[in-house]
Amino acid sequence: MLISDTGVPEEHIKRDQWGGETMLRLSDGWCSALDRETFMCTIYENRPWICREFEMGSYECRDERAEFL
C-alpha cells in the first residue's frame, strides 16, 4: 500500500475499489517501475515507503532476486 505521497508517477499506481493505492504490477508480477534488464528502480527518488524500508542488497532482496533470475 502507498501510505504517503512520495511522488510516485500515476502510471505506476493501481487503485482498488475502495481507493487504496498500491504499486502497479505487470503481467509478470513485478513492479511496473522495475527495469527488467538492470533490476533497478526507474523511480528511485520517488519510491514508496515500503521500498525504502526494503534495503537494496539485504538478504531479503537477494532472496527475492534469486527466485526470479
From TrEMBL:
Pfam families: CxxCxxCC (PF03692). This is Fe-S oxidoreductase. It comes from Photobacterium aquae.
